[in-house]
Amino acid sequence: MGVTAQQSDNGQEVTVCVAGRFDYRVYDSFKASYSSIAEDSTQINVDLSETDYMDSSALGMLLMLREHVGRAVTILLLNPTPDVMKVLAIANFDKLFAIKK
Amino acid sequence: MQALEQTRTRFWKFEAEDLNHSDLIADLVASICYECDVDKNRHHNLELVIAEVVNNAIDHGVLGLDSSMKKNPEGFEEYFICRAARLAELKDGYVSVLIEQLSDDIIAISVEDSGAGFDFPLEIQTLQPENLMQAYGRGLMIIRHLCESMMHVGRGNCVLLQFKITAE
Hints:
Number of domains of chain A: 1
Largest sheet of chain B: 5 strands, antiparallel
Strand order of the largest sheet of chain B: 1-2-3-5-4
CATH architecture of chain B: 2-Layer Sandwich
Helix content of chain B: 25-40%
CATH superfamily of chain A: STAS domain
Largest interface: A-B, 24 and 27 residues
Order of helices and strands of chain B: EHHHEEHHEE
Largest sheet of chain A: 6 strands, mixed
Helix content of chain A: 25-40%
Oligomer: heterodimer
């Protein structure tokens, strides 16, 4: 459960995995997961394959991540579960972020 | 003499000290599911609706947070930090939830908060696709999408929803 982050060997790609609930309660750990990433990182993957719940506070955190890293970094949402995909679709986030299933 | 039909209602009131409890939403949803015999396939949607509506009541009603704060750069971050700080120091205020079973299929959910209430401008009620990055409105969008109906009443501090509890 919770948020974990892993950097690729070349340091350019970071994968943040949110297991369990993605809401207000993981704010601190979600923020910490990307705050210390290398400056030359070009891609952040948010792995949602183990996320079983997500609400608008998580949508806000994804926008916060985007604000933080700027346009030069690609954000990819990976393998959202059906319940999570439904929330992303309702909020039209499939038009804002690249989603890879 | 015509007998008055007894309506099944359930009522919860969360005081200031309850609102910072991290399991508030999950516990409330579990109670509603049990009391109202909510179909298992509807549990997730109900949890989303309750989370959005109760968090709105806490954020904008009880804590008096302004969504427009999220407009500024780094605004989301400020908003989250401010929310946590105000919640931790909260002394007054409440959120109450009333559930009424309207039929075998539908429950009415009324959520009221102790806040001053506010007018809901149209741009908050309907988030347009061209404003997807807009700071607010996503919670209401989720509620509207998952409920049969939504209405703001009183001084803007009470929201009435109808939610389908039987399988699609």
